[in-house]
Every structure is written in structure tokens, then in C-alpha cells.
Task: structure prediction
Amino acid sequence: MEIVSIRRAEERDIEAIGAINSAVFLGDRDQVEGAREWAACWMGAFPLYQYFVLEVDGVVAGYAGWQMHGGFHRAEPVIELDQIGIDPKYQGRGFGPQLTQHCMPELASWLKQKNTRIESHITFVVWAYALNFNAISVYAKSFTDGACGFRTQFGQRAENMLRVRWPIVMPVRQ
Result:
């Protein structure tokens, strides 16, 4: 039986994140060094950007990169799932939703400790190419408010924003 674990990424995971990125995303397709450099830049942006990895039997099989928007002390904070990549050898096994659903409460807990000004909720968002039905079906499992926005960015490919708002109970401020 496989042992699946999820944890915050560490410097030692940059190679695996880069390899997965170059295997699954068009921007760095087959450009492992460029993808590794990209991942290293984002790793250095902690806590603005936070990586998590999913391991199967001790091997990094996927990762998720989350970006904080608008500062760490917003009354209505927004956290974006910027990227989720699952190694092609491990795709189709439910690891994408599992990774997303693990990260969201951990990020909410982290932000709740850092931000005492949250008024009612944390908003999680993800942008998906409108015609990427596989990605949208994965995201819809966690971003249950559905499509709440639309844009064209990075060329002419239309994207839909999916969202979920997590209620947060905070102590009354003095």
C-alpha cells in the first residue's frame, strides 16, 4: 500500500517541483532548468508565496503554489492557488483535489495567526483556462462557489476564476 503525505515544501524540493512543472505546463515544457529557476524564485518569496508538496512513498509526486494577495493584514484576505502540478505518472488518482484540500485549512490557520484583522472569511481563488475542462473539474471539488470571474491574460486564452470563501471566527478586537 502506498504512503501518501503532504507537507510544506523545502529548498530540497525545488528540483522535483521544477521537473514536474516542465512536464505538465506549457510555459516551461521540457525546460527543466528554467522551471527549477522559476520555482526557486517563488520559494524565496515566502511567505508571499507558499509551496506544498505531495509525496507518494517518499517521492515528490505533485506540488501546489499559493500566493497571498493584497498584504498580510487585509480584513478580507485573498489566497490564490497559482499552480498545481501532478507528475504525469501520478495523474488521475485524485492527488490534485487531495493536495488542494489539505493546503486550504493549513493556509487559513497560518493566516489567521498572522492576521488579527480578518472580519469574516478568507477567499481562496484559482484561475483556469476556460477550455481546460480537466483542471476545472479538479478545481470545482474545492472551489465550490463556482465561476466568479473571467479574464484574458497571458495571450488570448480566456480564463475563469473559481472561488470559495472560508468563514473565519476571530476574537472580538479591542
In short: Helices lie at 14-24, 32-43, 95-114, 133-139. The two ends are 52 Å apart (CA to CA). The mean pLDDT is 93.
